Amino acid sequence: MENQMREEADALLRQGGMRVTRQRQLVLSALLQAGGPLAAEAVAECIGDPAGCNRSTVYRTLAALEERGLVYRRLGADGSALYALRREHHAHVLRCLVCQRSFSLSQCPLEGLEREIYETTGFLVQGHSLEFTGVCAECREKAKDRRV
C-alpha cells in the first residue's frame, strides 16, 4: 500500500509540474492515506520526522502544493486551515453547527458558474471551496423532541 501511495504521489507531482522530492512524497502520501482534509499539524504527525520533514517543511510543502493546485485549503469548524487533495471530482461540505459533523454534497453546484465566469471574464478558475453551515436532520429532530 505504501508503494502504491508513493507512486500516486509521484504521478500527482509530475502532473503539477513539480520535482519529486521525499518531503513532497511524504506530505501527499499522508493526504492520500487520510482520504479527507487534514490540518498541517496532523500531516506532520502522520509523517513523523523522517528525512528532515519537520513541521516547517510540512507547512512550506503544503503551500507549494496549494500554489500548484495539487491541494486546496479550507477552514475547519474551529477556523484552522485544513488541506486536502484537489481531485477532479470533489465534494463540498455541509457542516452542522450543533454537532459539528460534516457531510459532503455528491455534485458540484458551481460547475456552470465556473464556465460562465470564464466565458464572461476570461478568468480561468483553478479551484474553489464551498461550505454550507446549518443544522443537520438528526439535530433538528432531537431539538423537536425536546420541545414536546
TrEMBL record:
Amino-acid positions noted as binding Zn(2+) in the UniProt annotation, renumbered to this chain: C96, C99, C136, C139
GO biological process, one term: negative regulation of DNA-templated transcription
Entry note: cofactor: Binds 1 zinc ion per subunit. Binds 1 Mn(2+) or Fe(2+) ion per subunit.
Molecular function in Gene Ontology: DNA-binding transcription factor activity; transcription cis-regulatory region binding; zinc ion binding
Keyword Secreted: no
Keywords recorded for this protein, A-Z: DNA-binding, Iron, Metal-binding, Repressor, Transcription, Transcription regulation, Zinc
Cofactors demanded by this protein: Zn(2+); Mn(2+); Fe(2+)
Residues the record lists as binding Fe cation: H89, E111, H128
Family in the record: Belongs to the Fur family.
The protein, known as: Transcriptional repressor
